Amino acid sequence: MADFEAIYTLHFNNVYKYVFSLCRDEALAEEITQEAFFKAMEHLSRFDGKCTLYVWLCQIAKNTYYTYLKKQKRFVPETDIGLSWQTEPDFEVMLFDKESAWMLHKLLHRLDEPYKEVFSLRVFGELPFYQIGELFGKSDSWARLIFYRAKNELRRGFDERKV
Q: Are 158 and 103 in contact (CB under 8 A)?
């Protein structure tokens, strides 16, 4: 796991910049990049070295982004690239719905530490990742990863309650 943290720290910013160049949305780029690193961590044994690690990570990120677009039914043909299109509400938007916010607080209460605190500091305290990492004596990359995992756990909780 320590090796993956080094990979994450070394390549996160460059992969994020690549994803941002695709979507032009900071929040989406960060989410896609985090998800791509999660996928890379799961499949690190599949990296065969035929290309650089950075290229492999960018390929995962690009595929993750295209999968996201397909799921959102927002895939835009190349001929329409210049047009603007509306995004569907995402996880953060649900926070404004009182019922969803109450459910979020209940799910958040059940999260283990440090996930609960990192999520709260980021969403409710609006702290940047570097400050959250500093509070825990960790890096901003660590804070991003913990936030991403907490957010996924909360999403799963929302999805289970919908069923």
A: yes
